């Protein structure tokens, strides 16, 4: 009699996992990275809002691509929307009407796509503001700052090409605005316009070309930048705010799996739900009200989406200057804003490198700053936001005039003056506020928090009792670095020979003093001796 044993087969899922691991090394990769720690703070969710909005844009964009016809060939409309019957329009506009009225759920998907695009750009901008104000762009994250900046700029142009596709009167007016800006480029402006539009405006090629850029080119580049951005976030580890046990060499937070991924998954559906509710209840871009684009018409109240209002405001407040030079008419009223717009964007892009040069800081930073502890940087950020808001008013000067019953000329002059004065005032005021908050923090560390309890001393004096701060609060208020400003040194060397100091070195030292100098960039933190003296019984605690 013989006995035989049969080996029990592993479950199918386990066999598939073993097969994949043997070829892709998934297990070892997951084991090394799935327990990676991420810090937790509400402001860190801004980047997630941008990421999830981008995913929603891709999903809804695929749906819309199935029904949209990117053609400028003219047809006569006889679809579901009766008021448009008999009107000649492009196939692009007709197919957008069909998506809105005939495709099941088409209008809702269009609304979700548009709202997600607006929220995507808003989340990216606010996310970059968080990174800027907390100094999270410093070494080793300068390249990631550039990736994020490029995502924002490409998102702006992707949005522009997207809302131009329906070929309605509003979007056509925006394309006409762009054509005017291109024509203002000296010498080559006409050639650029003919190349882009395939002939005289509007031509027959712009919608198909915008469609290719909007669906393939720009999203493809953005997807690559987004992946690179996330890889660098993963590689460099996330910044964290100062607190007990948190240093530049560790991360205090939750593991990627299962905690962070579970929260992230729930947050994705929350973002999707909010965008869906917005789309279902607040109408946006009703193209059937505007009608198809005609070059001889301009829609009233023509405004771009908010993220392009900056460029429109530049052109609207600029005087209509024209100069004849060497047989060419230079339309400076349009060309100068066309130059200023990319220069402002470039200044934002290179700021991390400028600050590193000014401060001479070559260290790695993984602890985020409190904005008040970097007054000059914070003041620059608020100045830029002020400039943006002023130009946004300029870009909508007609609507501001009609809604608030103001003179459009008065609004234009206000924008012209505040374009120069607004950022300067914002810079000065913000810096003084930051220094005042630093002084308040110093007082809080030395004397504690105001309790609101009034006590009368034996000799009749009334004082307010201060509550001492916890060790965690003390650490948070005193954890920031306070580097010394760069010094030029003595004018002469040890032999009495005058040293040669370049203009760049002098400028760098002066700017460094504005970042780190006492009473200009930072209020000295309380020393241990001061704290011991106050808390030894001589202070009002």
Automatic annotation (TrEMBL):
In this chain the Cytochrome b/b6 N-terminal region profile domain maps to 16-242
What are the EC numbers?
A: 7.1.1.8
Q: Which organism is it from?
A: Streptomyces hazeniae
Task: Name the lineage.
Answer: Bacteria, Bacillati, Actinomycetota, Actinomycetes, Kitasatosporales
Which parts pass through the membrane? 49-69, 114-133, 145-165, 177-198, 210-235, 256-282, 330-354, 374-394, 406-429
**Which cofactor is essential here?**
heme
Q: What is this protein called?
A: Cytochrome bc1 complex cytochrome b subunit
UniProt xrefs under Pfam families = Cytochrom_B_N_2
| InterPro entries membership | Cyt_b/b6_N, Cytb/b6-like_sf, Di-haem_cyt_TM
Key words, A-Z:
Membrane, Transmembrane, Transmembrane helix
Per the record's keyword annotation, is Iron included, yes or no? no
Which residues lie within the region annotated Disordered?
Answer: 514-541
């Amino acid at each position: 009699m013989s006995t035989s044993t049969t080996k029990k087969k592993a479950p199918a899922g386990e066999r598939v996992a073993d097969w994949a691991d043997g070829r892709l090394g998934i297990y070892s990769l997951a084991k090394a990275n799935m327990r990676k720690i991420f810090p937790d703070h509400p402001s860190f969710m801004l980047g997630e809002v941008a990421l999830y909005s981008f995913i929603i844009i891709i999903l809804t964009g695929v749906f819309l691509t199935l029904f949209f016809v990117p053609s400028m060939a003219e047809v006569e409309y006889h679809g579901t929307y009766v008021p448009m019957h008999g009107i000649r329009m492009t196939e692009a506009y007709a197919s957008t009407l069909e998506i809105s009225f005939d495709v099941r759920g088409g209008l809702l998907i269009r609304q979700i796509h548009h709202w997600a695009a607006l929220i995507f750009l808003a989340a990216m901008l606010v996310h970059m503001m968080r990174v800027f104000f907390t100094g999270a762009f410093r070494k080793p994250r300068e390249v990631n700052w550039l990736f994020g900046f490029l995502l924002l700029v490409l998102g702006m142009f992707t949005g522009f090409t997207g809302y131009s596709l329906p070929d309605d009167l509003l979007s056509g007016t925006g394309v006409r605005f762009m054509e005017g800006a291109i024509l203002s480029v000296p010498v080559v402006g006409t050639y650029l316009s003919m190349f882009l539009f395939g002939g005289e405006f509007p031509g027959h090629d712009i919608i198909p070309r915008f469609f290719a850029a909007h669906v393939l080119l720009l999203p493809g580049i953005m997807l690559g930048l987004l992946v690179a951005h996330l890889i660098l976030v993963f590689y460099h580890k996330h910044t964290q705010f100062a607190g007990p046990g948190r240093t530049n060499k560790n991360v205090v937070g939750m593991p990627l799996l299962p905690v962070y991924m579970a929260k992230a998954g729930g947050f994705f559906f929350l973002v999707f739900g909010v965008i869906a509710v917005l789309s279902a209840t607040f109408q946006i871009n009703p193209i059937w009200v505007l009608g198809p684009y005609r070059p001889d018409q301009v829609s009233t109240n023509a405004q771009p989406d908010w993220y392009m209002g900056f460029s429109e405001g530049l052109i609207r407040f600029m005087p209509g200057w024209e100069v004849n030079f060497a047989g060419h008419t230079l339309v400076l009223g349009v060309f100068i804003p066309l130059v200023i717009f990319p220069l402002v964007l470039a200044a934002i892009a290179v700021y991390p490198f400028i600050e590193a040069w000014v401060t001479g800081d070559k260290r790695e930073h993984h602890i985020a700053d409190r904005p008040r502890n970097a007054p000059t940087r914070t003041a620059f950020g608020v100045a830029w936001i002020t400039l943006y808001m002023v130009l946004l008013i300029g870009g909508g000067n007609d609507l501001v005039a009609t809604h608030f019953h103001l003179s459009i000329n008065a609004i234009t002059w206000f924008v012209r003056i505040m374009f120069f004065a607004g950022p300067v005032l914002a810079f000065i005021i913000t810096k003084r506020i930051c220094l005042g908050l630093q002084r308040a923090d110093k007082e809080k560390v030395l004397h504690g928090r105001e309790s609101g309890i009034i006590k009368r001393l034996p000799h009749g004096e009334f004082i307010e009792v201060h509550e001492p701060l916890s060790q965690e609060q003390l650490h948070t208020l005193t954890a920031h670095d306070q580097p010394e400003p760069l010094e030029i040194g003595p004018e002469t060397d040890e032999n009495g020979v005058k040293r040669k100091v370049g203009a760049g070195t002098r400028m760098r030292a002066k700017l460094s003093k504005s970042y780190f100098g006492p009473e200009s960039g930072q209020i000295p933190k309380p020393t241990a001796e001061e704290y011991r003296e106050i808390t030894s019984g001589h202070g009002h605690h």
